[in-house]
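Reader question, answered in our methods column.
A reader sent in the components of a multi-part assembly and asked whether the whole thing could be modeled at once rather than chain by chain. We filled in our standard form and ran it. Here is what they sent:
COMPLEX SIZE: two components
ENTRIES:
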Amino acid sequence: MLDMKFVRENPEAVRENIRKKFQDAKLPLVDAVIELDKRNREIKGEVEALRANRNKLSKQIGGLMAKGQRDEAEALKAEIAKEADRVDRLTEEERQVEQELHKNMLLIPNIIDPSVPIGKDDSENVEVERFGEPFVPDFDIPYHTDIMESFDGIDMDSAGRVSGNGFYYLMGNIARLHEAVLAYARDFMIDKGFTFCIPPFMIHGNVVEGVMSQSDMDAMMYKIEGEDLYLIGTSEHSMIGKFIGQQIKEDELPYTLTSYSPCFRKEKGAHGIEERGVYRIHQFEKQEMIVVCKPEDSMAWYEKMWRYSVELFRSMDIPVRQLECCSGDLADLKVKSCDIEAWSPRQKKYFEVCSCSNLGDAQARRLKMRVKGADGRTYLPHTLNNTVAAPPRMLIAFLENNLREDGSVAIPKVLQPYMGGITELRPKKES
RNA sequence: GGAGAGGUAUCGAAGUGGUCAUAACGAGGCGGUCUUGAAAACCGUUUGCCUUCACGGGCACAUGGGUUCGAAUCCCAUCCUCUCCGCCA
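And here is the structure of the entire assembly that came back:
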């Protein structure tokens, strides 16, 4: 969400930004909010003068009553009553205009960073850099669920019966590997100086509105029936929501947090053939990193954060690349974002495993977070988030890249302590 | 789930229908005096948002409604916290 003052003073910049994101349908919103803002200020001017007068007279009534001058007090009451209708009407219109204004403001996308490449959709995202050799072995890599099955590590059939499509049972060593990756990712971030957190997995509607756009909310969030609670789609939601309405002391910045949570997503929309198995599911687990910092520091944190993901994946011998989101693929709240994609030797292409975003002050403004500066002024902090590791999807990359020709899977050194010291997984039956 | 108490500024906390909410008082922050420096003490200062060139004005006492000329204060609903009981991993 943008600052209304900014829109008022820079309407062309806001329009240009909408065009860069190929959301021309939203262009009329700019004139609409400027018109609503104008009307809002007109109403305020009038209604506030009326209120000022009423407040003044009411105070006089108080004085007269204290002195027992009832008649004079009644005369003033009558005077106030004359304006009451107009005040009520204007107050009602003010409420409506403000509501409409707020609704439209939520739809106008955040101003993207000048460095963001311009493009229509995800097909125009830009590969920035590769890390590690994208290696294709000379034997066939099976589909990830087949690899897992070779270790008796997954049961999709039961999950279908119990919970439906989009759920899974992980079993045995695959389940253990899933936990090992999370534990390793957690300790990796703790070693970087981040504070480990376990947040609530359900949050109130006003927090949901503060951290994400309406369209994301509709496509992602599960609501608990009969209560004002939603299942989180990522721990970012409860970790940023943590600061709702809070005044933050400047010397406490930056907050560098790493949170674990299960994530629940409706995943509305078509699922392609490559999204079978545990690639796109309604429930998964994730270790996340969150930074709340001064505005001038957010780009430096952004750079640091995506590099942490690269470092983590490289420590498990998984080749990755950084893919920068183009303007059209960037969610409305984001200033800049990139994906870290892992190499799939089976598909011979990269696929998304991490998503790093700088939200600027958009979430902070929506949540009414503020920082008290050393000079006494208050300002909005910037918020960032990035995936550390999100199994089971990241297990796809892990298994495909560590699979050997004999069907066994090497456990990288960094994960061995979390796997009871074992160095490899051996398939149940040799194939 | 039942009973009770409560939610006021950065924090603690007073205020129970008006004329100290321009939010008492205390702490913290900031500035100063004193000091070689620091601590202590003392003096001053310090809520946010909107609007205005400015003077000023409006709004906000968990949130949303209501009563009233006037609500932190009274009424209703919702959310949250604490205490006790019940249930529970």
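What stands out: Residues 41, 44-45, 47-49, 51-52, 54-55, 57-63, 65-66, 73-74, 76-81, 84, 204, 206, 228, 245, 247, 249, 368, 370, 372, 374-376, 378 of chain A lie near RNA strand B (CB under 10 Å from a C1'). Chain A has two domains: 4-107, 122-425.
Send us your own complexes using the same form.
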